[in-house]
Each structure stands twice: as structure tokens, then as C-alpha cells.
Design a protein that fits this description.
Layout lengths: L1 H42 L2 H26 L3 H14 L4 H13 L3 H14 L4 H13 L3 H14 L6 H8 L3 H13 L5 H13 L13 H9 L3 H13 L4 H12 L4 H13 L3 H11 L7 H17 L3 H14 L2
Pfam family, one: TPR_19
Keywords: Coiled coil, Membrane, Repeat, TPR repeat, Transmembrane, Transmembrane helix
InterPro entries: TPR-like_helical_dom_sf, TPR_rpt, Ycf3/AcsC/BcsC/TPR_MFPF
Length: 332
């Protein structure tokens, strides 16, 4: 009887052990199945995330390479990197702006204008991009559109309305320049340079001509007196400057009144003042005139050289050397 009971107990324990083992196997199977599902789910997510991260990395690499190439004046290579950025992330305003600036450096103004317009489509009121557009339009001698863009800038930045005076003068619109000067005066935004231009324009309508009686350069003088065109004035000023003639000051002053947007006249006027050791007046005229220089390295360098002479006359050797170096750098 006792043996039978022991056998029965052992049988029941083996049965419990089998059931317990089955339960463990069931739990493990469920866990394995759940873990496999989790891994499968994870595998289905990363590809898209990886692609985005890869694109972002490539974008950054090309963008910074473009900036590096631009810094060492390798503008074409910079453009190639920026084009790749534009493929990865189309219509990014920073990329479009940089493309415009690099095309501008290459002198390819139509492309520069195209890309700055695309950038402005993304952010129409961006000050730096609008100013870049004005610069590009000035290089293309498209003063009408440059005026439109500058007026937009002036709405939120009133002081920047000052540039409109120069743009109207370059566009041969004396009336428009006078109107802006009046508005700036009312707003108390007229600086010394613009007051100088205002005075010259005021004299322009009342200028009287006098016949030249001296013998030197009589042909060019008489030709200018007969027909006061810029071409005749330019020939006369060149001859007067070559001979260090004292009348260079007189005729360049008259030229500033007649042709207030011609940088060459300001250059000759600055030269005349330097010859007379009137260095502050020379600087004033040269600083007024250089604003009218557009995409002309030769005349820009001449301005810097005359500025260097003026600063040397004022015993400001540091600035004198600085402008001399600027001229040398341009003429390389």
C-alpha cells in the first residue's frame, strides 16, 4: 500500500515538471516571437532615417566646401558644390544666395541676378539679398530696377534711401535725384557728401560760361566751351592733368556741376586739390566720386592712389599705405 502511494506521488511530480517545462517553453517561444517582430519593425524604419541623415551630411559637406573655395577665389568650384547642394535640397535660400554671389564674382551678372531673384522668392524682404540685387543691377546698368529694389529697402531702412540719389544720377535723372535729396533733407538724413552734391546740382541750372583767353590747350578749351559734352570735357581734363595745369581745378569743378554722376570728373577734381595741397577737399571729392565707380578696376585703383596721396599730405601714413595697397591689389 505504501509503495503504491509513493509511486502515485512520483508520477504526479513528473507530470507537474512536464507542465512546468511546457510553460517555460511557451513563454520563451512568445518572447522570441515578440523580439523577432520588434527587430523586424526596427529594420523597417532606419532606411528612410539613414537617407535623410546621409543627405544632410552631404549637403553640409558640399556647402562648407563651397565656402572654402569661395574664400580662396575658386568661384567655379564653389558653384559646382553649391549646385550639388541645390540638388539635395532645392530652393534653399542660403544656397541660392551663395550661387548668386559666386556668379557675381565671375562677372556673370545675368546668372547672379537669376539666383538672387530665386532667393528673394523664398524671403522677399531679406536686407542682404536685396542689397546684393541692387549691386548686381548697377553692374548691369539696369538703374530702373535697381531704384525699385532700393526703394523697397528704404521702406524699412530710411537711411539707406541715400543711395537713391546716386542711382538717379547714374540713371541721368537729375529731377529724381533732387526729389530724393529734398526728402532726405526734410528727414534730416542729408550727410556731408549729399550736401555737396545738392550744392553742385543747385549750381547746375545757373552755371554761366566764360570764354577762355589763355593760349595753352586753346583747341580743347574752345571745343569744350562750344559744346559742353562729357567727351569734350574728358579730353580737356586729361590734357590739363598731364600738364599739371592750374585750370584743372576750375574745369573739374564745372564738370561736377554738369556731370554729377561721372566718376572721372571726381577723380580729376581730387587730383586738382591734391596738386594745390588741399588734401581734405581732395578726399571729400574722391569719396563722393568712388560711389559712382562700377566694375572698373582701373579707375577704382586711380581713386585709391589719389586718396593715398591725400592721406600722405595729411601725414596719415597708415591710411596712405592702406589705400596704396588696395590699388596694388586691384591692379594685380
Amino acid at each position: 500500500m505504501i509503495i503504491q502511494n509513493l509511486h502515485k506521488i512520483l508520477k504526479e511530480k513528473r507530470s507537474e515538471k512536464r507542465e512546468h517545462g511546457f510553460s517555460i517553453r511557451l513563454v520563451l517561444s512568445f518572447f522570441f516571437l515578440l523580439f523577432s517582430f520588434f527587430l523586424s519593425a526596427q529594420d523597417s524604419i532606419p532606411p528612410s532615417v539613414d537617407i535623410i541623415e546621409k543627405n544632410n551630411l552631404e549637403f553640409q559637406q558640399h556647402f562648407f566646401k563651397a565656402l572654402s573655395d569661395k574664400a580662396i577665389f575658386n568661384y567655379q568650384k564653389a558653384i559646382e558644390h553649391l549646385e550639388k547642394c541645390n540638388q539635395i535640397l532645392p530652393n534653399n535660400k542660403a544656397v541660392l544666395f551663395e550661387l548668386s554671389k559666386n556668379y557675381d564674382k565671375l562677372g556673370r551678372n545675368p546668372e547672379a541676378l537669376n539666383y538672387i531673384d530665386l532667393a528673394l522668392n523664398e524671403e522677399p524682404d531679406n536686407l542682404w539679398m536685396l542689397e546684393h540685387k541692387v549691386t548686381t543691377l548697377r553692374k548691369m546698368a539696369n538703374f530702373d530696377d535697381a531704384i525699385v529694389a532700393q526703394k523697397k529697402i528704404a521702406v524699412t531702412h530710411p537711411k539707406k534711401k541715400q543711395l537713391l540719389v546716386f542711382l538717379h544720377l547714374q540713371n541721368n535723372n537729375i529731377k529724381g535725384a533732387k526729389k530724393v535729396l529734398t526728402e532726405l533733407k526734410e528727414a534730416k538724413l542729408l550727410n556731408a557728401r549729399l550736401r555737396n552734391i545738392e550744392e553742385k546740382l543747385a549750381k547746375r541750372d545757373s552755371i554761366t560760361t566764360q570764354k577762355e583767353k589763355t593760349v595753352v590747350n586753346i583747341d580743347t578749351r574752345s571745343q569744350f566751351e562750344k559744346e559742353k559734352s562729357f567727351d569734350n570735357l574728358k579730353v580737356l581734363l586729361e590734357k590739363l592733368a598731364l600738364n599739371n595745369d592750374a585750370d584743372l581745378l576750375k574745369y573739374s569743378e564745372e564738370g561736377l556741376i554738369l556731370f554729377p554722376a561721372q566718376p572721372f570728373v571726381y577723380l580729376m577734381n581730387g587730383k586738382a586739390h591734391n596738386n594745390n595741397k588741399e588734401f581734405k577737399k581732395a578726399l571729400e571729392s574722391l569719396q563722393n566720386g568712388i560711389d559712382f565707380v562700377i566694375d572698373n578696376n582701373e579707375i577704382e585703383a586711380k581713386f585709391y592712389l589719389e586718396m593715398s596721396k591725400a592721406y600722405q599730405g595729411l601725414n596719415d601714413i597708415k591710411k596712405s599705405n592702406s589705400y596704396k595697397n588696395k590699388a596694388a591689389k586691384i591692379l594685380k
